[in-house]
Amino acid sequence: MHIPDGYVDLLIALLFGALSVAILGLAARRVGRELPEHRAPLLGVVAAGIFAAQMLNWPIPGGTSAHFVGGAFAAILLGPHLGALCVATVVTIQALVFGDGGLVVLGANVFNMAIVEVYVGYGIYRLLAPYGEFRAAFAAGWLGITAGALTAGLQLGLSSAFEYELLTTLSIMGVGHLVLGLIEGGITAVVYRYLANARPDLRPTTDAEVSLS
Amino acid sequence: MSAYPDWLPRALAVLVVLTLLAPVFGWAAGAVGYAEPLENAAEATGATDSAEAVDIALLPDYSVAGLGSATGTFVSAVVGTALTLVVAVGIGRLLGSEPNAE
Predict the structure, then answer these.
(1) Alpha helices for chain A (secondary structure H)
(2) Distance of alpha carbon A184 from alpha carbon A57, whole angstroms
(3) Is B57 contained in some domain?
(4) Are A56 and B18 within 8 A, CB to CB?
């Protein structure tokens, strides 16, 4: 779901870039008040793990392929604000060093994967957690990545390269990731359950970190 | 205060395993014909040719000039994972040390 340069109109890229900068700035300020020193290594390991996991393209017979994006996973494990900064770091390194996702469109890619997937995934997790954490983590990964794909579809469908075929881009991106997102949900839930059982102390503890208001 | 939590060695071992898996998955995805919904949407609307590569990328497409595909993918995975680890820990320390972030 990394959009290359040339796909999205400049105005849309700039708009989503500005939105991303504003939201990440807010996230950094929220985190700054709450981040205990011991969470810096956890942030590093989760970001590095997400980078490495994103390189694993799960082959699906029939000619499609998906990789774990990890936005909802980061949000659940780190809290949404730190989770957003975590995935934004990964997406930025992917673009700058590996050319995976464009530079002009970097803000839009950050918006889709590091903001929409993270905050939507986290919201779904919080909403459903009372009914079972495993199910909640699964739904968070699944619907979080679908939401991110829909905003990508929106950016593409409002751009000239895609002939402004908004319905086509929204349906291909939305339906495609609704199916592929089952893998995202599965990995999110399984890895989260393992970590929650093995190291319950690694979960975010402060309520301040989990509230936007 | 110790800078290294007790779970760190195990976490680093997981990262090493993930980087070793990268070339295997790369090969498998290539075998089934790798395509994401984004590429399908581009094809459906005729946008494919509009894509521009990032010129400044040192390891474009997770490959290393002069190295084979599997080796290049592995080196890219190691470099990227290590770089992400260092940058993210740096960001974490920076945020954590802000004395009066408002």
Answers:
(1) 10-34, 39-54, 71-78, 80-98, 106-110, 117-128, 133-157, 166-198
(2) 12
(3) no
(4) yes
Residue with tokens 């957003």: A84
Task: Tell me if B2 is assigned to some domain.
Answer: no
Q: Is B70 on the interface with A (CB under 8 A)?
A: no
Domains, chain A, in order of start with CATH, read 10-210 (1.10.1760.20)
CA distance A127 to chain B (A): 28
- Nearest-angstrom CA–CA distance, B94 and A167: 43
Domains: count for chain B: 1
**Residue A63 confidence (pLDDT) above 80:** no
Q: pLDDT tens digits, residue range B67-92? A: 988 999 999 999 999 999 999 999 99
Structure ipTM over 0.85, yes or no: yes
**CB atoms B5 and A42 under 8 Å:** yes
* DSSP track, A175-199: HHHHHHHHHHHHHHHHHHHHHHHH-
- Note the pLDDT of residue A194: 93
If you average pLDDT over residues A163-184, what whole number do you get?
94
Stretch (H or E) spanning B20: helix B8-32
Q: What's the pTM value of the predicted model, to 2 decimals?
A: 0.93
Sign of the CA dihedral A30, A114, A42, B64?
negative
- B84 closest CB neighbour out of A41, A48, A153: A48
Are A62 and B32 in contact (CB < 8 Å)?
yes
Interface contact flag, A89 B87, Cβ < 8 Å: yes
Q: Which domain holds residue B33?
A: 8-46+63-97
pLDDT digit string (tens) for A32-49? 766 777 788 999 999 999
Interface contact A200, partner B, CB < 8 A: no
- Round the average pLDDT of chain A to a whole number and report it: 91
Which residues 38-77 of A have a C-beta within 8 angstroms of B?
38-53, 55-66
